Amino acid sequence: MPDKTPGAGTRIDVKNVTKRYAKSTAVDDVSLSIEPGEFITLLGPSGSGKTTTLNLIAGFTELTHGSIEIDGQRVDHVPAHKRGLGVVFQHYALFPHMTVAENIAFPLQQRKTPKAAQAALVASVLQTVGLAGYQDRFPKELSGGQQQRVAFARAMVFNPRALLMDEPLGALDKNLREKLQLEIKRIHQDVGRTFVFVTHDQEEALILSDRIAIFNNGRIEQVGTSADLYERPASLFVARFMGESTVFKAQVSSNGSDWHMDFHGSTLHGPVTSTVPGKGALVLRPEQLRVAESRADAPAGSAAVPVQVIQNIYLGSGHKYELRLPDGSTGIVRTPLTERTSLRPGDSAYVHWPAHQGVLLEDNDLVSTT
Amino acid sequence: MSSTLSNAVRPDDGVDPTMRPGRLRPRRDAQAPARRGRLGPALLILPALALALGIFAYPLAESMWRSIADPQPGVQNYQWFAASAANWAVLGRTLWVAFLSAVICLALAYPYAYFMTISGPRLRTALIVIVLIPFWTSLMIRSFAWIILLQDTGLANQVLSWMGLGPFHLIRNTTGILIGMVQVLLPFMVLPLYSAMKNVDLRLVQAAASLGARPIVAFTRVFVPLAMPGVVSGSLLVFIQALGFYITPALLGSPSQMLISQYIYVQVNGQLQWGRGSVLGVLLLVATLLLLGLLALLMRKSRRAAGDEGGLL
């Protein structure tokens, strides 16, 4: 049994793991180090390999190459029932022929916990998930949210080395989902265990996680804190997946210290911080951009691109603009209320920003946005 | 019967059973469209209703009546049955042989049906065809074939003697009856079992493993209970059909170890004792209903877990 000290989480190392099926590669050379006690989210669109990675850690799927270590010990040939990990499934996976108490006691019975201790643990974990008094119900007699709480209690009750969750809130409605997100976060803080969470919902990932691993096409694009991913995306995919962005695409040239691109007649530039791509994509977040009615209204030295206003939406906290860029793509700008304009749909305007801002990435889109 | 069969052989939709979404919540059928035209459907069930009343209810009532009215009113037929140990032996043997048929069918069919659920669609179709082959040959032909195979000098005993065994008496006794009945009844066990097993969410077995259950424990504590409705309906189908078997025991069994349907034939056709034959029929019915009642009592708990979605009981 893992010990119970809060903060004594488990380290999980996924090393160069590949999972190939007959006709496809679900996970392609993925490496990921999960720190003890960390809440890490595997985030990505469906089919990106995040769930397969979780199943490989859980032991439900055999890997093709690579290794998985839990607290430094290789487990990739250890069967699921000996890995000591708790798993919560999107479909709850409660045993329909057992009551709530029998479901929760199941992992304790497998561990030969004495009967009296079982009852006490079941009662206490039901208290934790807010279902005290429900022990004699059958799963069918509970709502979806209650079933997921029971599933959570069952995966927690045996004090697993880590808790793996595969889109556990995916089947619930929005209000309930938000409520349970906060509860999961609270429980993580209380128990101090390692949590691995899979979702395709970036907002959910931002709320819950210490770190997020972004999956795409069976690979990890980037691992980092929410701020890392939002402010310093490592790829165009990450930039687009994490929040809104405006992307300026053009050929890039460099003189060693600065890079330049000619975006439909506007010169954009910035300091060189890493390898300069040939085909570049300059990514700016909505908060980094401003809108001006004429070029002269933009501060001297700022970068500016002529645009056409598609929408000017009043949000209360500020304005949100949707703009048509010269290459036909759409730009998004959020400004505080103090910077009001009278721009209307169809008006010509300029989008501008301090020239050093933005992240220059490689334009690896297969088809250009038009 | 036919509904059970068509359920069981319904072509699979090709979806990986582990990927089936949310089996766990009861699905409510949409409200039936309006209430108009109630009379139409009611008229359509009339032929079936008439048939059921005509060929089942009426003869049943008739034989119940005859058991106390033939040759003259009174309970003398029941007294006749109760007074002879040989009569009780026939009833007991019939129940015992039916029970053994069900147990042997279950033992053979369970791994077979399980293998069907975990195999691919092509292999599964082949396995269904194999199990249905007995339906394509007449019962008489099959029984005569068994006689040729199982007689003391038949193929079965020849093979056994090459292996240095036997000869065994494989027909004209209970062994022969069981061999013949099990072969005939096996599909009635395999198909309901398969039907129940393919509805078991295999992800639950995976969940059990994640909670620390060894494969054998995950199987016995999760898969087996969830497939139990199939065991119950298959066993009932086999048991109840086995009670009424006539041709197979008549050809493969022994006159000294008669089963009840043969005995009824002897009473009615041989001795023209319609009342006594009726008593045997009524007692068989009562014994069967008692067993079903007992089973229904035992199934109470699983009914609640299933959210009262009806099984056979």
Tell me what the structure shows.
The complex is a heterodimer of chains A (370) and B (313). By secondary structure, chain A is α+β, with helices and mostly antiparallel strands. Chain A has helices at 50-58, 100-110, 115-128, 144-156, 174-191, 202-208, 226-231, 236-241; strands spanning 12-20, 25-34, 39-43, 65-70, 73-74, 86-88, 162-166, 194-199, 211-216, 219-224, 246-254, 258-263, 266-271, 279-284, 290-292, 302-314, 318-324, 330-336, 348-354, 359-362. In chain A, strand 4 (65-70) and strand 5 (73-74) form a beta hairpin. In chain A, helix 2 (100-110) packs across helix 3 (115-128) and helix 3 crosses helix 4. Mean pLDDT of chain A is 91; it is low at 1-7. The radius of gyration of chain B is 23 Å and the shape is globular. Mean pLDDT of chain B is 83; it is low at 1-33 and 308-313. Chain B has a single domain (62-305), classed as MetI-like fold (Orthogonal Bundle), CATH 1.10.3720.10. Chain B has helices at 2-8, 39-44, 46-69, 76-83, 85-118, 121-132, 139-150, 155-162, 174-197, 202-210, 215-243, 247-252, 260-270, 274-298, 300-305. Chain B is an all-alpha fold and 313 residues long. The longest helix of chain B is centred in the first third of the chain and has 34 residues, at 85-118. The A-B interface holds A 58-60, 79-82, 84-87, 89, 91-98, 106-107, 110-111, 138-141, 144, 147, 154-155, 158, 171 and B 21-26, 201, 203-204, 206-215, 217-218, 221-222, 225-226, 302, 304-307.
